[in-house]
Amino acid sequence: VYIRYGRCAQLEWLSFSDGFQVHFVEQFHKHEGEQTVAETEEYLTSLPGRDGMTELDSYADFRIGFSVSGDLADAESILTQQGVAYYTLGSAGASGDPTEILFQLPGGVIVELFGTEAN
After folding, report:
1. Which of 54, 56, 49, 93 is nearest to 73 (CA)?
2. Residue 2: which residues within 8 A CB-CB, separation 6 or more?
3. Which of 1-5, 67-71, 72-76, 90-94 has the lowest mean pLDDT?
4. Residue 2 pLDDT greater than 80, yes or no
5. How many angstroms separate the Cα of 24 from the Cα of each of 46, 83, 85, 105?
6. Which terminus of the chain is more exposed, N or C, with fewer CB under 10 A?
7. pTM > 0.90
8. Alpha-helix runs per DSSP H in 3-87
């Protein structure tokens, strides 16, 4: 993880061995409308079912998706070990492993992992 503090934002990114990178930008000065960013984040994280990822809400369609090589057993194991609540969709083959996993980042952003391999 590389972190850089600039004049306008804090930038963080992950670099993977295959050259793929994920960038995160935390702006210091946000342009806000009638509802502040903090209020929006609080609203999203307090929606029913978000705390334990027990159900999907209408905002869950606005999410970040990543295709994961293979099945999602390792990802599911890591989320469980870290105590991160997640929601699963689909099942693959006899193992019954999920084909999609959704979990929430701080601030209410939903991440969806897609498995590329059915068991």
Report:
1. 93
2. 12, 13, 15
3. 1-5
4. no
5. 23, 23, 22, 12
6. N
7. no
8. 37-45, 73-81
Extract the tokens encoding 89.
Answer: 């969709």
Supply the pLDDT for residue 101: 92
Strands (E), 1-85: 2-5, 9-15, 21-27, 63-68
Tokens, residue 25: 């930008």
Alpha carbon 103 to its chain centroid, in Å, reads 5
Distance CA 111, CA 65 (A): 6
- Starting at the edge strand found earlier in the chain, the sheet holding 21-27 runs 2-5, 9-15, 21-27
**pLDDT at residue 88 greater than cutoff 80:** yes
- What residues pair up with 5 in beta bridges, in sequence order? 10
CA dist 73 to 1, 76, 98, Å? 24, 5, 8
